[in-house]
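Thread: quick sanity check before group meeting

JM: Hey all, I'm pulling together slides for Thursday and realized we never actually wrote out the predicted structure for the chain we discussed last week. Dropping the sequence here so it's in one place. If anyone has concerns about the input, flag it before I start.
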Amino acid sequence: MTKFDPGMVFYFGAEGILRYEASEDAPDYIKDVVAILEIAVWRYKVTEGELTLIEDPSGDKKEYLMRYELEGDSLTLYEDISESECSVMYLKRYK
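JM (edit): ok, ran it. Output follows.
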């Protein structure tokens, strides 16, 4: 399971661009993670219960396919690591 402390903000824009930010009160390690993620251009697309994150740091595009569940203000992402291992990330809507 991947768990982030409060302070890491994911912005899923209507134009298919994903941006990351750290809140002012985020722990330093979250600010460091966000600084690394901001180097690349991130896009996303959603199709029938699957979320694809597309990273394009310098023309070398990488795609990450995840299943997702959206329930109320909670988004759960599942990424298969291997046949027997799955990474799970829980996100809450920030208002």
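AS: nice. The radius of gyration is 14 Å. Residues 16 and 44 are 5 Å apart (CA to CA).
JM: adding both to the slides.
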